[in-house]
Each structure stands twice: as structure tokens, then as C-alpha cells.
């Protein structure tokens, strides 16, 4: 089976996850920092990783830092931000050649640790303030990142659905923070937040590759140590209140309408019926053989695209579709009908088998990359579970029609968001 063997060690201030595999000719190091989402910090958090990856004390310019990475046989280094349930997660990833496959035995793994340690713990700071020029440059880029969501109407409508659906909940906050807060960030305020993050975030460090556990532990002990700390955690709340369906119409200059619909699944990663929910989503709208794709797009020719996806740690299912303005009512009713069909068990054995095969393939494809392995394993950190990939696949494979119908009955329609063009408003 798809065994990923992970060894987890408690280090000083963080957890070290070692995934030994001979699958790759590179070693991948991923540093993850997780904190509860909140309005005060979200924009600072969105800026911080980009400032840290830009330069450091030893490599005070981006050019020097990137040149050094080139010297490490073209190591690649990048950062990423994501939301997992009500948590905001920062990731730093460094992929470097495995020295076993090189003719000259430069201790690349050790150098990778040193480099990552430099970036994380020795930033380009003077008198408790980050380098002003770096901050200004990264603030401009952050604004562009926030703006680009507005410009991409597919992303925008999804982001607006979440805002409307989760009003008053932390999950409504945008992963890249808020445009009108960016300007107020100073080199001092960001440094002060940097100290807070390293004091309060839950820290996890993943190493994936053909490595020796003892060597990794020894270098990690040597290179990365933080004070013993108590990371701030929250209880993921399930919102099971039945509420009236919200309907939001927004008018902009768009040629194609964007219809996004949000459901509360009342099921999160780690729940017993999570696996049945995954299969349900696959049959409903997850793939090209799904009900939404066939009925909304193919049969009724109503949509340019129609699909659904899960937010596994928040218990949401979102439907995304692109439609002509005039087809709104019909599209909404077909999307709702397909959910009713799921609740009535109106799907075939073949749909069930086909969906399970596609999900399994998708999971196996995910673990074909080191980053994918880390993402799969990290679900357990977020949810405080210990679910192996084998167990995940096994449970999903065992999901019966009855279990899928049972999980469908928990799903509630919450919000219908429609982004439409000027002519309709008139």
C-alpha cells in the first residue's frame, strides 16, 4: 500500500517530522508555523514570510541570498500561506539535491539546515526593526497579491462567498490579509510580530528524503532550537445551527456570471464520516464524471464550469460555477436538485466505484511529491489526529451508499452568492 513512514520527535520548541523515502533524488525541508486566525495579525502574518525569504543578516540582499542557493546546486526555496480551518499557516520550503547522488560530497543537508536556520532565526534586523527597503518592497508585492484576487473573478467570487457565509467567524479573513492595513505596517511593528509568532505559533519541521534519522536529529539539535513554548491552540467549533439561506447578488462589469454556493457539511477531517463525505463530494461535484459536471454543464449546457470542493477543517463545501446571467434560476435549482439526489441515494454503484478509484489516484498522485507528502501529513497536526494515509484510503474504500446518504443528510445549504454584470442589474 501507500505507506508513508513518519517519525515524529519532540525537539526544543518544535516537532521534527522525518519521512524516510528513497523515492526522490532530493531532500525537502518544510518549516510550518500555525496560529489561530485573527484580524489584528493576519496582514502582518501575510507579509512576514516574504520579508524573511527576501534576505537575512548573512545575505542582506535578495541577490546574495539567491546566489547562495544557486551555489547549493540550484536549491529551490519558497514560502506559502494557507488557511486550515480557523488557523493561518505559514510554510517555508527548501528543496536541495541529495549529496548521495553527487560526485563531490558537499554536506548539502547540513548546509540546507544552516540556511533555513539563518533565514528563520537571523533576519536582516537592526535595532529591533526589519530593513526598511525590504519592507516597502514586500508591502507593494503584498498589495498586488491582494489585488490579484479581486482581478481574477473566479477567485474573487469564491473569496466573497466565504466572507458572506462566515461573517463574524475567523475563517472569513483572507489568507493574504487586508489591503487597508498594509500601509500601516512598519519595520518595527513587523519585527515585534516576528518575535510574537516565534513565541506563540505551533512549529513543525518536516524532512522528506533518503536521510539518516540520527544525522537529522543531531543537525536539528545543533542548528534549530527555540525556547520551550506553549503554542496557542483553539477548539475548532462546529457550527450546526440551522439558519436561513443567505442570497447575495453583486454587480460588477463582468461578461460571465459567477455562481458560488456554500454548504455547511457539519463534518471535519478526523470525524468518522469524513471519508464518506469525501466520496460524496466526488460524486456530487469533485470530478468530471460528477453530477454537477454532467447535469449543469453537459446536459443543460448552463455552465462553463461547475465543480465542488471541501474545506476539510472548517466543514464547508463550496460549489463554483460560471454561468450566463439569464440562467441563474435554472442553475441554482439544478445544483440544489443534485444535492437532493445525494440525500435520496440517487447514485449508482458505478458512480461509487469510479469516484473511489479517482480519489485514491488523486491521493497517490499527491504523495508522488515531497510537498504533497507534507501536506497530507500536516492534516494530522491541524486536527490533532493520527490518521495514516493507508487508513484514510481504506476507510474511503469501505464507505457504503448508506453512509454517504447519512452524511448527505447533515449537509445544509447556507449561502448563494452571484456575481453578475451591469445589464442584469438594470
From TrEMBL:
This is Insulinase family protein. PANTHER family: INACTIVE METALLOPROTEASE YMFF-RELATED, METALLOPROTEASE. InterPro entries: Metalloenz_LuxS/M16, MPP/UQCRC_Complex, Peptidase_M16_C. Coiled coil: none annotated. Residues 185-357 form the Peptidase M16 C-terminal domain. The lineage of its organism: Bacteria, Bacillati, Bacillota, Bacilli, Bacillales. One of its GO terms (molecular function) is metal ion binding. It comes from the Bacteria. Pfam families: Peptidase_M16_C (PF05193).
Amino acid at each position: 500500500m501507500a505507506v508513508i513512514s513518519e517519525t515524529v520527535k519532540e525537539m526544543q520548541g518544535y516537532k521534527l517530522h522525518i519521512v524516510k523515502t528513497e523515492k526522490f533524488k532530493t531532500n525537502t525541508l518544510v518549516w510550518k508555523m500555525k496560529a489561530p486566525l485573527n484580524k489584528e495579525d493576519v496582514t502582518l502574518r501575510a507579509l512576514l514570510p516574504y520579508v524573511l525569504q527576501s534576505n537575512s543578516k548573512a545575505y542582506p540582499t535578495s541577490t546574495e541570498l539567491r546566489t547562495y542557493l544557486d551555489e547549493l546546486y540550484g536549491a529551490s526555496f519558497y514560502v506559502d500561506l494557507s488557511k486550515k480551518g480557523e488557523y493561518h499557516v505559514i510554510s517555508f520550503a527548501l528543496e536541495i539535491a541529495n549529496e548521495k547522488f553527487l560526485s563531490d560530497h558537499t554536506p548539502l543537508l547540513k548546509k540546507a539546515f544552516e540556511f533555513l536556520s539563518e533565514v528563520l532565526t537571523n533576519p536582516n534586523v537592526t535595532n529591533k526593526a526589519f530593513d526598511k527597503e525590504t519592507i516597502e518592497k514586500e508591502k507593494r508585492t503584498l498589495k498586488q497579491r491582494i489585488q490579484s484576487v479581486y482581478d481574477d473573478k473566479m477567485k474573487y467570487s469564491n473569496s466573497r462567498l466565504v466572507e458572506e457565509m462566515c461573517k463574524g467567524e475567523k475563517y472569513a479573513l483572507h489568507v493574504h490579509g487586508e489591503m487597508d492595513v498594509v500601509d500601516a505596517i512598519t519595520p518595527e511593528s513587523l519585527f515585534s510580530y516576528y518575535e510574537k509568532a516565534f513565541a506563540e505559533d505551533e512549529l513543525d519541521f518536516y524532512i522528506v528524503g533518503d536521510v539518516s534519522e540520527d544525522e537529522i536529529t543531531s543537525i536539528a539539535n545543533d542548528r534549530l532550537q527555540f525556547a520551550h513554548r506553549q503554542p496557542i491552540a483553539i477548539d475548532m467549533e462546529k457550527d450546526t445551527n440551522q439558519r436561513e439561506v443567505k442570497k447575495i447578488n453583486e454587480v460588477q462589469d463582468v461578461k460571465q456570471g459567477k455562481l458560488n454556493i456554500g454548504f455547511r457539511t457539519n463534518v471535519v477531517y478526523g470525524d468518522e464520516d469524513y471519508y464518506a463525505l469525501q466520496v460524496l463530494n466526488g460524486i456530487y461535484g469533485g470530478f468530471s464524471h460528477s453530477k454537477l459536471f454532467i447535469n449543469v454543464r453537459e446536459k443543460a449546457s448552463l455552465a462553463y464550469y461547475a465543480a465542488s470542493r471541501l474545506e476539510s477543517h472548517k466543514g464547508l463545501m463550496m460549489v463554483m460555477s460560471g454561468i450566463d446571467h439569464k440562467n441563474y434560476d435554472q442553475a441554482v435549482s439544478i445544483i440544489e436538485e443534485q444535492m437532493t439526489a445525494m440525500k435520496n441515494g440517487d447514485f449508482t454503484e458505478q458512480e461509487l466505484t469510479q469516484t473511489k478509484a479517482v480519489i485514491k489516484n488523486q491521493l497517490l498522485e499527491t504523495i508522488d511529491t515531497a510537498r504533497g507528502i507534507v501536506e497530507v501529513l500536516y492534516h494530522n497536526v491541524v486536527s490533532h489526529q493520527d490518521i495514516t494515509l493507508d487508513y484514510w484510503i481504506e476507510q474511503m474504500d469501505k464507505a457504503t451508499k448508506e453512509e454517504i446518504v447519512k452524511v448527505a443528510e447533515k449537509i445544509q445549504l447556507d449561502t448563494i452568492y452571484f456575481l453578475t454584470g451591469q445589464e442584469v442589474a438594470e
